[in-house]
Amino acid sequence: MKVKIVVSFLSCLVALTTLAQIKDIPFGDNSHIRYDLRKGTYDVIFKGRTVIKDAYAVCRSGDRADSSISYTFHRWTTFPRGEGEMVYMVQSSGGGRPVMDQRFYIRKGEKVFTTSVRIEATGCNYMSPLTTQHAYLDASDEDRALLVPFDNDAWVRYNAFPLGLADFTSAEVTALYNNASRSGLVLGALMQLTWKTGITIKGADSGKITQLSAFGGYTDKTYTHDLIGHGTVMAEPDHFCTSPVIMVGWYDDWRAGLEDYATHARMRQVPRWSNATTFGWNSWGAMQDKLTLPKAKAVVDFFHDSCSNFRTADNTLYIDLDSYWDMLLQGGLEGDYSRLKEFCDYCKSKGFQPGIYWAPFVDWGKSPRKMEGSDYNYADCWVRQNGNYNDLDGARALDPTHPGTLARIALVIRHFKACGFRMIKIDFLGHAALEADQFYDKSVHTGMQAFREGMEFLAGQLEGKMLMYAAISPNLATARFVHMRRIACDAYSGINETAYTLNSTTYGWWQDKLYDYVDADHIVFKAEPPGVNRARLASALITGTLITGDDYSTPGNWHSTAKILLQNKDLVEVARAGRAFRPVEGNTGDQAGNFFVRREGKHTSIAIFNYSDKVLHYTIDPIRWGISKKPLKELFSGAVLQPGMLTISVPPADAVIYRQD
């Protein structure tokens, strides 16, 4: 009997000891993190279901790698940080390894948690607070894993892979979801000031994810355009290196999850632009190298005289001179800007806002010569990777930290402000985010640190006097510095251009929560059939803003098209809201979705696209689409559809937009 009592006592003691080694971190609705101090791993349970199992942290510096599962001792502590936030920390030591601490940040009322890892080291080039070989979705052939590209250069595409085919690294953020139920997991880095963050995903059938790693230190020849590895992030004054902070959340609707992620990231930015949703014209759509002062003035006249309903809510337009504006200069960047000032004055006399274009971090000349505004040579400022130049898009990257680059920026922006420009489109910003063998500023070691330094200087020169509008640029990092961003690369007039652009809207619409406005590139009509032009305009309306691009200084079909489509008050009202439509489905791979919906104020609007050469018939399910049983008005034609399960036919290469009051 005594033996049984002793055995029972020892069993209880072991159980209590084991229980003491399992720490629970509650958050959200019936969700918690369960950390095992014996193993240095953690599970994440969302709403009573284990979604992530046996996750751990990894840090690398050169050839050395340290993982939380390799440590002997793990010490648990908690402390408050700011109002309503609690930090749960596991400090790992022993085994001759540097001290590592993993941190989990829980904010009261939030359904998500954030996490980071720190390690005592002089520097690191890879840090992952969350790596696992065991994660799970609903077991279904509708499971998807979303690849988000780093930027919008070179006509890159988003891709919602079937989970069983997923084997990629997404930039900064991803969603892992079931398209039928819409439930899923969203993970993303909340800041892009130091690290390029990647999320590596390898999926299998039956809802299993066999590799999931959210890490700082991502570079890729295709996506980030880097030919070398990530720079080393140096230790802070306390001798610790810190990873990106990763947000992790499970959502009933993956679309709401990505919007929530963008909202959390935006909370870490500074609110910027409060003016009306941007409408306007950009010369790159059709005029391009034919740009002259008389032609630019003729475009102003067209919108003033023949398109009076096409205006922002504060009754203006932005008329933007793109590349080749320098043909209006005399004597180069250090020369005479008087013709540009004449253009600005003419715009303002008609009630419009003049805009200009520039790519501040690239050199198209690629030859040694004096850099304008400085005593440096262009060759002094070129970025090198492995000793070679990275001529991305045909332009050579300039070091964003070099005083020559900065002096040139100061010179040009000073002239732009003196001319009276109110908007600037800045382009090829991905060049500023490239890694480098070294930067002029020796305190800068990574591409994102250099990007931050260059963009902060540019924004400081502008002094808040212009609408900043980014074209080719990092998807997320640019949001800290600009008001508005193009969601995709150049697109022109054809239905294929609409389909390309809407791939980015289908899977990147949520960026309108991060930026003040997102747009679908210049809208070019040319001599396309009416349906193609409707689709092209609709792509802008559902993305967020409206920038046109035809050469309105010369006669053509685009004049009459603009007078019809851009004067339609219902369509203009859709655009004035400035908010993107959600995709209805997320299972189109690297292609665009066909169905989009937006609820804004008292209106619910839906858009349906047909990119094919055949009539397509669509049946709307009001529950899945989120619309009520009320009539729908088609905004191009004015036709009204009565409520119920609706079958809609869309002609080849065309689009419809319905609005429900």
Tag the structure with descriptive keywords.
Beta-galactosidase, Chain A, domain 5, 661 residues, ten-stranded antiparallel sheet, alpha+beta, single chain, Immunoglobulin-like, 12 helices
Number of helices in the DSSP assignment:
12
Q: Tell me the CATH superfamily of one domain.
A: Golgi alpha-mannosidase II, domain 4
Using the 3D structure, state the CATH architecture of one domain: Distorted Sandwich
Mean pLDDT over the full residue set: 94
Point out poorly predicted stretches: 9-17
**Rg from Cα:** 27 Å
**What is the total tally of β strands?**
42
The helix content, as a percent range, equals 10-25%
Structural class: alpha+beta
Q: What name does the CATH topology of one domain carry?
A: Beta-galactosidase, Chain A, domain 5
Termini separation comes to: 79 Å
What's the CATH class label of one domain? Mainly Beta
Gross morphology = globular
How much strand content do the residues show? 25-35%
